[in-house]
Amino acid sequence: MPNIYKIPDIPLILAPMAGVTDFAFRELTRTAVPGCVDRFYTEMVSVKGLLNKNRASYRTLPKPHETTTVQLFGFDPADFPRAIEIAFACAPKTEGIDINAACPVRKVVRNGAGAALAKNLPTLRRILEVSEPLVHAEGRRLTLKIRKGWETDPNYLEIISMAMGCGVDAIALHGRTVEQGYSGMADVTVLDRIPEVERSRILWSGDIIDPGSLEKATRCPIAGVLIGRASIGNPWIFQELKNAIGGKPYTPPAAEERIRTIESHVALMEGEMRRERICGAFKKFVSGYTKGIPMARSARNRLLMSTELDELKKGLFALLYENENLIPVEEG
Ligand SMILES: Cc1cc2nc3c(=O)[nH]c(=O)nc-3n(C[C@H](O)[C@H](O)[C@H](O)COP(=O)(O)O)c2cc1C
After folding, report:
1. 12-245 is a CATH 3.20.20.70 domain
2. Could you read off the pLDDT of 210-247 as tens digits, one per residue?
3. What is the distance in A from the centroid of ligand 1 to the CA of 128?
4. CA distances (Å), 244 to each of 7, 28, 194, in order?
């Protein structure tokens, strides 16, 4: 008997992840589980990088045909209007602009960007005020991404009402403090403390890994959920969650489908970067693609020592085939 979950029909969104949600990963997710991902974010893009015509920053923008939300990070409100214009010009199908006030990385915070903005509300307000008219004049969405707050000052309630007053369409809330980084669990009880009218415009982020965690985060009405780490090497998480929403059983992919998907993923990466870089860049997906294989840790560790892409692929495919019958075929 499959579990019957009580989950509202809610948008499933691929979370922004630097070093992960590049074009190859977004396209892979789009094609591996068609119709299961309702929205996509880019990795975070530096506004200064765009203004300084930095090639890497331009390459982080969506392709011209892509319907994707561009996440911007920066600290100077004066930089945002031009950066937004550049994003719309390079990627005319950009669906929305998201402002990053969540990133805890020291280099970003030291410059006054990312999570530092959660401690500098006048600057954050100004960034939203200068961005809002531009984004809405183009008929796109303006969103903000925050954490619960800093350890000593979980000020998410204050930020949410300030940002909604500035006209943002939605706020993605990662339920960890900045000091927590990615440790511990995201605190889903913060949702209970947000007034209902604001909560209906909150996108939840943190530890959505299966239908059970999705059910918990959507107990009260919210606007959507972001799926981050659970999607790395596992685009099927979106299928699993969509099925749970629709009350349908879910069968995890067999070895052959995983291998086909890995081949497509590598081919997409080949279109985006030099071949010698792919082996290193692909390693972050190995653990996800071998999810469900018991006792795979030592085999995985061996794979991570590979220095050539072909060696990595060969080892990965062998591991998947050897364990084909061990991968659980029915879950739910
Ligand atoms: C490798 C990695 C990179 C991330 N990069 C970003 C980023 O560029 N912008 C952002 O707002 N959040 C970033 N995040 C945070 C995620 O969007 C998400 O909020 C967080 O991982 C919690 O969700 P999860 O438990 O579903 O992974 C990143 C997380 C990871 C693991």
Report:
1. yes
2. 999 999 999 999 999 999 999 999 999 999 999 999 99
3. 21
4. 7, 22, 26
What is the reported pTM?
0.95
Torsion angle in degrees (nearest 10) through CA of 311, 313, 279, 107: -130
Where in the sequence of the chain do the CATH 3.20.20.70 domains occur? 12-245
Ligand 1 atom nearest to 20, measured from its CA: 1
The DSSP code for 37 is -
- Residue 289 burial (CB count, 10 A): 23
Q: Is the distance from the beta carbon of residue 15 to the nearest atom of ligand 1 less than 6 Å?
A: yes
Return the CATH superfamily for domain 255-326. Putative flavin oxidoreducatase; domain 2 (1.10.1200.80)
Active site residue 279: no
Write out the residue limits of the CATH 1.10.1200.80 domain(s) in the chain: 255-326
Q: What atom in ligand 1 is closest to the CA of residue 100?
A: 11
Distance of alpha carbon 172 from its chain centroid, rounded? 11
What separation in Å is there between the alpha carbon of 14 and the centre of ligand 1?
10
